[in-house]
Amino acid sequence: MRVVIAEDSVLLRVGVERLLADEGIDTVAAVEDGEALLAAVEEHRPDLAIVDVRMPPSFTDEGLRAAIEARRRVPNLPVLVLSQYVEERYAVELLAGGASGVGYLLKERVADVSEFVAAVRRVAEGGTSIDHEVITQLMVRSKRNPVDSLTQREREVLGLMAQGLSNAAIAKSLVVSDGAVEKHVGNIFAKLGLEPSNSEHRRVRAVLAFLNLG
Question: Which residue range or ranges hold the HTH luxR-type domain (predicted)?
Answer without folding.
Answer: 143-214
